[in-house]
Amino acid sequence: MPHTSVMIDTAFVWSALGGDPALLSRVSAVEHPGVLSARLPVRAAARACVGACALAAAELGARRAGGGGVPEVRVDDGAVATAFVSERHLLVGGRAPESFAPLSRFWRTADGWVRTHANYPHHRARLLTALGLAQDPEPGPEALAAALAERSAREVEETVYAAGGLAVALRTPGEWAAHEQAAALRSRPLVELARLDASPARVPARVGRDPLLPAAGLRVLDLTRVIAGPVATRTLALLGAEVLRVDAPWLPELPDQHADTGFGKRSARLDLEADRDTFEELLATADVVVTGYRPGALDRFGLTPHALARRRPGVVVAQLSAWGAYGPWHGRRGFDSLVQVATGIAAVEGTRGRPGALPAQALDHGSGYLLAAGVLRALADQTDEGGSRLVQVALARTAAWLLEGGTGRADAPEAPEAVDVPPGPWLAETDSPLGRLCYVLPPVRFAGGPRDWARPPGGWGSDPARWA
Predict the structure, then answer these.
(1) Which of 249, 269, 238 is nearest to 375 (CA)?
(2) 465: which residues sit within 8 A by CB, 6+ positions away?
(3) Is 299 known to be catalytic?
(4) Which of 97, 130, 135, 266 has the lowest CB atom count within 10 Å?
(5) Quick one: how far is CA 263 from the chain centroid?
(6) Catalytic position from the list 9, 364, 411, 463
């Protein structure tokens, strides 16, 4: 990918969000060089995403509090770095969370490398079926390695995709730049903001300032999974929104992952087809609808942005996807680790001929804060202009921004030496329905704003499908 000069800072993100540049003077940073160390500017990108999100929250809070100046925003690299690996710090009853499954990793192929994702049982089953291993009693890493070693990386990618599984061939930044999906992303902004209609804004009541909760009184219907989407809705919950996460009863969930991103929310299971009336009741009073499924996957339920706006004028629709809502890969499943591999990030971060990875699932976490920031800015703009709104963020577009702001070369210099910042100041403990939790405090901070979530996570699907 040819190197282009793109700033990795809060000003760039704030501009992408359509924010008033004069408000950037309200933001200051506490820098810790060496955290989130990588060849690419991960620390700067993480700080920019969180800083812009916090500024968007402070701006909306000032408006809803009845005027006055926008509170000061302070972004601490230590808090941000800790939050970007929140899943690694979570303890549930003293137990550390489970990490990637044994079949989710890099593998050598006949001509290169491929990365698979098999954390969920159905994805594991599809991967094994695609590679002819489904009949083995207990197919482990050795059997999978042998099967992959006989095939080309691109063949594995297409074969597994055709079976509904997840595997992506390693590409360099240049190879990805020549891909049609990269071309589709290139012309798109980091955060896409659009007005869907001319409906009048439904302006919620003013909020107090103790603490300042910019999203108080707002209802957020959370149809997201894994990390990026849930990070966005977890942030909106921090800011006072009532967030109800809704999952299909038949889709499995990883309990630790749900716990890490479930702070401040309630969780219900609902069949959108069989329980359509219940869903429509929820939608009828929702202010924000956030989706994190593949583009088009929820269309049959009438969940396209325009369909939602027709049924709920003034709604803010926020969509998170892996590859973008356009281009030949728009309908593909994807996760942070796979997007790193396809876009060339894994090649840039690799050493001695082996692919590497970012020090955090930074595409997920960064995109989550970008999506939350887009929602907050859409709500702020609604107070002046009305209109249903659409916010779109894609992991692959966030990856492109990171690559454009770095060297974008697989032969980049070694990353600077990593520096560990003790996470203690940004960790807390609380009792919960899941047991005693150790968790990471939110990095989104502004003067007068909340410092923690109002409630701990509960069990997945343990709440009724109705607003509190």
Answers:
(1) 238
(2) 244, 246, 268, 269, 270, 275, 278, 279, 282
(3) no
(4) 135
(5) 15
(6) 364
